[in-house]
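Read as amino acids, tokens; as here:

___
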Amino acid sequence: MLKTANLTSDDVSLVKLEALEIPQRLKNNTIQAGHTWEPHLSEAMKLGGNILFTSKQTPGLILDLIIFRGEIIRDRYCND
């Protein structure tokens, strides 16, 4: 994402926020950009935000799964 804007990690300061905080932080100008998703994306757009980058630009990069070792599932969630 940074590379597409001719930026490096030295050009940004990362701040840990919850996705739901992004719209208000953008509106208050306490951040210049944020990573979020629906419904927070629509809220940010209504407040004047613009999309800089979307996962559509990197197909396959964002995975839709979580993998655990079998013993984790067995030990934590199976009541045998």
